[in-house]
């Protein structure tokens, strides 16, 4: 299950709407110890495509180095689908290389089902997971 702050979910959706009809993309980093997503990092879709996203290579390297320096991990990798349902495409599955990461797909296409879905993609196997939004993580941290 993906547990995420509602403000982060809202920010991803707003970014997807702003970038529509091009696919949007980004990462939500979180502390290695908790693996709770806390820091939204919108990224540039270097493919600038309506059907594909690709992190800019320089930005990708910079963001991953920042996370390492801050002892963070990529808790969520997200992108939008602007003309199809929020389900991983063949390319999404082939390129998913972070087995501990939640892959969130935001759908900005009309009539294609839910606007947000989350998946685990491990060894090319896709498993959908529930999303639980919270206003704060304080209840989790306090037991």
UniProtKB/TrEMBL annotation:
It holds the Pfam family Prok-JAB. GO terms for biological process: proteolysis. SUPFAM superfamilies: JAB1/MPN domain. Residues 2-125 form the MPN domain. Keywords: Hydrolase, Metal-binding, Metalloprotease, Protease, Zinc. CDD domains: MPN_like. Gene3D superfamilies: Cytidine Deaminase, domain 2. This is MPN domain-containing protein. GO terms for molecular function: metalloexopeptidase activity; zinc ion binding.
């Amino acid at each position: 299950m993906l547990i995420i702050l509602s403000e982060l979910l809202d920010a991803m959706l707003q970014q997807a709407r702003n970038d529509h009809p091009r696919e949007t993309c980004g990462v939500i980093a979180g502390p290695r110890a908790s693996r709770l997503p806390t820091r939204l990092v919108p990224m540039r879709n270097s493919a600038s495509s309506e059907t594909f996203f690709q992190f800019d290579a320089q930005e990708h390297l910079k963001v991953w180095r920042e996370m390492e320096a801050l002892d963070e991990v990529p808790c969520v990798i997200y992108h939008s689908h602007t003309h199809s349902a929020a389900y991983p495409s063949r390319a999404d599955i082939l390129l998913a290389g972070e087995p501990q990461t939640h892959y969130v797909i935001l759908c900005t296409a009309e009539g294609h089902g839910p606007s947000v879905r989350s998946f685990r993609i491990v060894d090319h196997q896709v498993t959908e997971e529930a999303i639980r939004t919270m206003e704060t993580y304080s209840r989790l941290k306090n037991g």
